[in-house]
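Pilot study result, target chain (434 residues):
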Amino acid sequence: MAQREQVAWCLGVELASNFGKYLGFPSFIGRNKRAVFAYIEDKIRQRIGSWNKKLLSQAGKERIMNKYWWGTGTDRGIHWKAWDKLCIPKKYGGLGFKDLRAFNLAMLGKQAWRFLTEPTTLVARIYKARYYPTTTFVDATIGNNPSHCWRSLMATHDLVCAGVRRRIGNGRDTLIWGHPWLSDDPSPLVQTHMPEELRGALVSGLIDQDTGVLDSLTEGQVRLAVGILYYLWLARNSALWERSLPRPTSTVRRAVMAEEAYTRLGRASYQPHATVLPESDPHERPRCYFDAGYRQHTGEATYGVVLLNHEGVFMAATAGTLPGAFSPIMAEALACKEALSWLKGRDTQMIDLLTDCMELRNMITSRGTRTRSYVGVIVDQCRTTMSLFTSCSLHYISRAVNMHAHTLASLAFDQDHPMYWDVIPPDSITMFVH
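Predicted structure:
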């Protein structure tokens, strides 16, 4: 108390008995947060009790419905609907309630991002001096006896820093091991084992000081290194099983000769099989790529669908799980059916379907397919749905051209609900679309 009085005397200000409020919230938060914020709950309860239901807006009526489902006071009632279900957007079958925790984390994440991008601001300098004086926000920890604000900001630390990449510049402030400086996805960190003597090694040691670019091996040097490793492995096997260890110079000579022979012959160029895509017509129809995923040991199946316009620009996508698939071809047929239903829901009238499953393409386009099997029934349903479009065709493409849909189907095994994307593609397929 004496220190507070002394500071107030030096600054020429009065010593306040409380810290007041800012934007309706207490300026100072102690350890007993329940008591500090109890007045908010009382105000909300009084406000809800005074509402006239006839004058409620749509949002107010939804709050009344929420009150009906969850109950009030000590009588909480039965939780007929999980909160995560209520937070699903309305167009996907939910009520569109905001996930308050996610919204709060987003707001806190914006503040954490400012600590990274604007380290010279007053608030960033104060927090740096208090919680991470010798490092950056990326390496900051919650520390001992943190304030409520710092603890809240650190709740978003992993989320914000997971997508952070360091710009190298001269590389003198970036560690080779421990700092996210690689452009690799999903991990920007160097994954190899760190030798103890290189714990503090900087990226500047990898930069050619004359050219200002990262030192890298030429293609020939890479082939030579691979050849040396291969012949070292052969020498190891010879010593272990034949009791004969070749000289090191002989091992290196064999690797050099192999690399020179490969260079003389020239690298074999791989020419992928040409993929026949539908020719563009005057209507410039969009193209729908679809694929299925299937796990034989569990019977799980998924689908991935990507919609591109006639110029190959991303329009929309969806992915999810497929119930009731007993085989890979059945999963492909169900994925086709799911893609057609999704397109009808988007009110698409003209479309070109593309699949990397030749068997499914032949079954749908061949009118002689019997419908006595489960797959045959699904194929017949696909034909019926295709007939409802103004124009709908099915074409075969290679897996290399269908990687975006294949990737979404592979990732859908970890999803609990169908996922939808419009205009902006998911990060997992950005390399495959425009």
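One observation from the pilot: Residues 102-161 form one domain. A full batch analysis is planned for the follow-on phase.
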